[in-house]
Amino acid sequence: MKAIIYQEYGSTENLKLQEINQPEPKADEVLIKVLAASVNQADRHLLSGTPFPVRFTTGLFRPKFQTLGADVSGVIKSIGKNISQFKVGDEVYGDLSGIGFGGFAEYAVAKEEALAIKPKNLSFGETAAMPMASVTALQGLRDLGEIQKGDEVLINGASGGVGGFAVQIAKAYGTRVTAVCSGRNEDLAKIQGADEVIDYSLRDFTKEDRKFDLILDGPVNHSLSEIERVLKGNGRYVAFGFSMEALLLGSWKSFRTGKKFETLLAKAKQADLKLMANLADEGKIKPYIQQSFTLDEVPQALDLLINGKVSGKLAITI
Ligand SMILES: NC(=O)c1ccc[n+]([C@@H]2O[C@H](COP(=O)([O-])OP(=O)(O)OC[C@H]3O[C@@H](n4cnc5c(N)ncnc54)[C@H](OP(=O)(O)O)[C@@H]3O)[C@@H](O)[C@H]2O)c1
Q: Are residues 153 and 175 both part of a single domain?
């Protein structure tokens, strides 16, 4: 089968389209004919081996997993003997990050827990844009953010992969959403349901008089003290982008202020994938795909993501 392979940490120049052996599913795995994938910032971190701590799981000097790609959608081709939830021919989608990635390939293996039946209303490309980004948004808003109907929610980084889903999920919970993104993405944020859009090049949300019940933050470009200023008394702040300050000082700041400062590490869960598929089928969330690429164009797609030129998601059709 064809797959995108890399053997050294570095840039997208290290990614090569090669012929490799098709993976064999173990007893607790299924084999998927991958019809679409999508790129995530996680692929960029695995490709470059940065920040350095990622290498403790992905290989200290050389990448342990040679095919990137967490998000996939496709059709089940064969199943291991312990598989009970899926059968051959099922159309599924899921997140392979827990099993060593491998989505930028014609076939991939996955465990049941990381898969769900694909939403019926979406194409394979749209579906492949959902797993990692939508589940991160959901877990940030619901689990750490304790989102409630009627909340004033602010999404910083609202036009990105995670942020675009966060706006839609927060609206599905019946909240009022303020989206922070660049002016070029204002229309997209409104289409996704934002009640108000703040162009970060014109206004700094931490300097405004308004206060929020919940702030979900991808860019993490403000200090915790600046964030605290615009959180209500029982407000919750969830950083899903990397924040050393939130990691080291979040608990202390929460204890001192009575507000909640959290850092999210999302994890693929079947129940959450099912919930996202239901929301998609109900028309409450729809991925925005800026552009689609073919398997051999994965390096171009990743370059676009690395250069910060993506609104919504990029799909790979295989
Ligand atoms: N914790 C977890 O489990 C987890 C899971 C997934 C992702 N992540 C991390 O979360 C971060 C975001 O991921 P993503 O997939 O959403 O990335 P993405 O698709 O690249 O989106 C980033 C967005 O941030 C916006 N942005 C850039 N500068 C900004 C600023 N100064 N103020 C407000 N928004 C700004 C950009 O919007 P404009 O184009 O409009 O400027 C862009 O759309 C990454 O660091 C990723 O590694 C963490």
A: yes
Determine, yes or no, domain membership for 215.
yes
pLDDT, tens digit, 9 for 90 and up, residues 237-270: 999 998 899 999 999 999 999 999 999 999 999 9
Read off φ and ψ for residue 5, nearest 5 degrees.
-120, 145
From the alpha carbon of 44, which atom of ligand 1 is closest? 47
DSSP category for residue 97: G
Residues 6+ apart with CB under 8 A from 126: 286, 287, 289, 315
Tell me, yes or no, whether 37 and 107 share the same domain.
yes
Interatomic CA distance for residues 73 and 37, integer angstroms: 6
Domain hosting 120: range is: 2-130+287-317
Which residues lie with the beta carbon below 6 Å from any ligand 1 atom?
40-41, 132-133, 136, 156-157, 159-163, 180-182, 185, 200, 218-219, 221, 240-242, 264-266, 305, 310-311
